[in-house]
Amino acid sequence: MAFSLPPIATFNSLLFEQTLSVLREYLPSPAPVLGVIDRRIPMPFKQLALEAPLNHLFAQAINDGEFEDFECRRIRLEVSGGQPGITIGFWAGRLRVIDGPGEATIRGSLAAFKTLAERQQDPDQLFFQRRLIIEGDTELGLALKNLLDSLEWQFTFRQMISN
């Protein structure tokens, strides 16, 4: 009886997933290191790195007026522990990365934000399980959650890394 090996791509993918699983389980959270890096990056560089991709990702929704209710409002997305975090606002038809606090803060682990961004789990479940928490103007935070849940968009960290 002949034994066949899986295709190289499948093997590499399986090995990659297993390696990530082990790393997630045994390595400490990268949040403190990311916080140190975040504090050292000047705001103009953050704006250059994040505003164009955000506006591209949500271009159709922005053009359709879906973000108009968020005009001149600020929402902070923050990793548990306070750093790193980013405050996003909407002005003159564009999503903007700004310095300072948000009117609402959505806080959670890196894993919870990744799950939300990749749409691997219903956003309501993430909030009910308290993996994501809204503080401050909860009505504003819930409005953003509902908007993101209603939009057709797709984002994966694997695509971002490979591009």
UniProtKB/TrEMBL annotation:
> Which SUPFAM superfamilies does this entry report, sorted A to Z?
SCP-like
Question: Which keywords belong to this entry?
Answer: Ubiquinone biosynthesis
Tell me which Gene3D superfamilies the record gives. SCP2 sterol-binding domain (3.30.1050.10)
Q: Cite the annotated pathway.
A: Cofactor biosynthesis; ubiquinone biosynthesis
GO terms of biological process kind: ubiquinone biosynthetic process
Transmembrane regions listed in the UniProt entry: none
Query: SCP2 domain spans which residues?
Result: 54-149
One Pfam family cited in the UniProt record for this chain = SCP2
InterPro entries hit by this protein? SCP2_sterol-bd_dom, SCP2_sterol-bd_dom_sf, UbiT
Q: Which HAMAP family match?
A: UbiT (MF_02231)
Q: What does this protein do?
A: Required for O(2)-independent ubiquinone (coenzyme Q) biosynthesis. Likely functions as an accessory factor.
Query: What family is reported?
Result: Belongs to the UbiT family.
Protein name according to UniProt? Ubiquinone biosynthesis accessory factor UbiT
The beginning of the lineage is:
Bacteria, Pseudomonadati, Pseudomonadota, Gammaproteobacteria, Pseudomonadales
